[in-house]
C-alpha cells in the first residue's frame, strides 16, 4: 500500500500526499495499520473545517457524518444536513477498521459521529477530543454536557448506553485525553484559571485522577510512550512565550527537559515506534520550522530530518504495511516549489 508511492515521489525528502486545497491542511493522523491517512482542511475565513481520509495513491474521501436511526459500528448513511465543522478524528484499532469524529452544525453543538453512522452519546453541550482505547473496548472523550468539561467513557459493546463519567472537578475542564498502550490508564489536561497541568487516571475501573505536573502556566497534550512507562508533553512554565518538550515517568518524579522551543503538535509529542525518540518541529522561523528527532534522555542527540519542506506544523509517525516508518507533516510547501501558500500534507520514509 504505502510502498506504491515511496520509491520515486519521496526520494528527495517528503513528497505531496494531499491535493492542494484553498485551505490549510492540519492534524495528519495515520490509521493504526498505516494503510490510510486522515487530515483536516481548515477554511479559516469561512469558519469551516472538513475531514478527509486518504489511502496512498487514491483520491481523498470526505468524512461527512449524518444522522441515521441507530448507533452501531455497522449502521449506514441515510443523508442529512451538511456539517460546518468536522474534526478531531479518532481511529479505532485496526481490528475494528473504523473511526469517529467530532462534528457540529450551525449551532456549534458538537457530537461524536461514527464513520458509518449516527451520533453516539449525543447530549446538549460540546463533545470532542475522543480517543479509542488500543484494545477497542472503550472510547474516552471530553464533554461539556454538565456545564463543565469532564472526561467520559463509552463502552464500544453498548454504544447506546449512557457514558460513564470519569472526572468531575468543578474548578477544572478536562481536555486532551489519551490512552496508555495497555488500555488501563488515561492521561489528560486539567484546565483551570490558574494554569493547566497533566493528570493521570492509573486505573479506569477505579478512577482517581491525580496531577502529575504542578507547574504554573500551561502543561499540555500528553502522549504515552509505546511501552506506557513515560509521558511526553509540552510546557511553557519556564518561558511564557516558548513551549518546550518534556518527558516524565508515569510513576512521578521530576519532568526532564528534552528540547527548548518546539511547535506544539495537534495530537501531542510523536514517539518513534521503538519508544526511544520523539519527532518534533523546531520553533525556528529563520530555518522555516524544520523537523527534528531527539533520543529521549539525550537532548544533544537532536538531529534534523531532511524533509525538504518549509513552514512545517502538525505531524504523525507510523509503521507502514511494508515495515518502514513513515512521517506525515503539514507544511507550507517544499523549498524547491515556486508556490507556497496553503498548507498541504507531505509524506516520507524516515527509517
| Count of beta strands | 31
Q: Mind telling me the CATH superfamily name?
A: TolB, C-terminal domain
Query: Strand share of the residues?
Result: over 45%
* CATH topology (level 3) name: Neuraminidase
CATH architecture: 6 Propeller
Number of H- or I-type helical stretches = 0
Give the overall silhouette. globular
Point out poorly predicted stretches. Answer: 1-10, 74-80
The radius of gyration computed from the alpha-carbon positions, rounded to a whole number of angstroms, is 19 Å
Highest-level CATH class: Mainly Beta
Find the structural class using helix and strand composition: mainly beta
- What is the CA-CA span between the terminal residues? 17 Å
Largest sheet: 8 strands, mixed
Average pLDDT confidence is 90
- Determine the fraction of residues in helical runs and give it as a percent range: under 10%
Number of domains: 1
What would your notes on this structure say?
With 351 residues, the protein is mainly β. The chain is built from no helices and 31 strands. It has a single domain (27-290), classed as 6 Propeller (Neuraminidase). It has strands at residues 15-16, 24-30, 37-43, 48-54, 61-63, 85-91, 99-104, 111-114, 119-120, 127-132, 138-143, 150-155, 164-165, 173-179, 186-192, 195-201, 210-211, 217-224, 230-235, 244-249, 252-259, 262-263, 270-271, 277-282, 291-295, 298-305, 309-310, 315-319, 325-331, 333-334, 344-349. The radius of gyration is 19 Å and the shape is globular.
Amino acid at each position: 500500500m504505502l510502498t506504491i508511492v515511496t520509491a520515486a515521489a519521496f526520494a528527495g525528502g517528503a513528497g505531496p500526499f494531499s491535493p492542494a486545497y484553498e485551505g490549510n491542511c492540519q492534524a495528519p493522523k495515520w490509521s493504526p495499520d498505516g494503510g490510510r491517512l486522515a487530515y483536516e482542511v481548515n477554511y479559516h475565513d469561512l469558519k469551516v473545517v472538513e475531514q478527509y481520509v486518504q489511502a496512498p495513491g487514491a483520491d481523498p474521501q470526505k468524512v461527512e457524518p449524518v444522522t441515521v436511526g441507530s448507533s452501531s459500528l455497522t449502521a449506514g448513511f441515510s443523508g442529512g444536513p451538511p456539517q460546518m465543522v468536522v474534526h478531531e478524528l479518532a481511529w479505532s484499532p485496526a481490528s475494528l477498521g473504523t473511526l469517529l469524529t467530532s462534528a457540529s452544525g450551525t449551532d456549534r453543538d458538537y457530537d461524536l459521529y461514527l464513520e458509518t453512522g449516527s451520533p453516539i452519546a449525543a447530549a446538549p453541550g460540546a463533545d470532542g477530543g475522543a480517543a479509542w482505547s488500543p484494545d477497542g473496548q472503550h472510547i474516552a472523550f471530553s464533554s461539556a454536557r454538565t456545564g463543565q468539561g469532564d472526561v467520559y467513557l463509552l463502552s464500544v459493546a453498548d454504544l447506546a448506553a449512557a457514558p460513564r463519567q470519569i472526572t468531575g472537578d468543578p474548578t477544572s475542564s478536562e481536555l486532551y485525553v489519551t490512552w496508555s498502550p495497555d488500555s488501563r490508564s488515561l492521561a489528560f489536561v486539567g484546565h483551570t484559571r490558574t494554569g493547566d497541568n497533566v493528570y493521570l487516571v492509573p486505573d479506569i475501573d477505579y478512577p482517581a485522577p491525580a496531577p502529575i505536573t504542578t507547574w504554573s502556566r500551561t502543561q499540555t497534550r500528553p502522549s504515552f510512550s509505546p511501552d506506557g512507562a513515560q509521558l511526553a508533553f509540552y510546557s511553557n512554565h519556564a518561558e511564557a512565550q516558548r513551549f518546550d518538550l518534556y518527558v516524565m515517568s508515569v510513576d512521578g518524579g521530576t519532568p526532564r527537559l528534552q528540547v527548548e522551543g518546539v511547535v506544539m503538535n495537534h495530537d501531542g509529542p510523536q514517539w518513534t515506534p521503538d519508544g526511544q525518540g520523539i519527532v518534533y518541529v523546531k520553533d525556528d522561523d529563520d530555518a522555516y520550522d524544520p523537523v527534528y528527532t531527539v533520543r529521549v534522555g539525550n537532548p544533544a542527540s537532536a538531529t534534523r530530518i531532511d524533509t525538504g519542506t518549509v513552514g512545517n506544523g502538525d505531524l504523525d509517525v507510523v509503521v507502514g504495511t511494508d515495515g518502514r516508518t513513515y512521517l506525515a507533516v503539514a507544511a507550507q510547501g517544499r523549498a524547491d516549489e515556486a508556490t507556497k501558500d496553503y498548507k498541504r500534507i507531505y509524506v516520507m520514509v524516515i527509517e
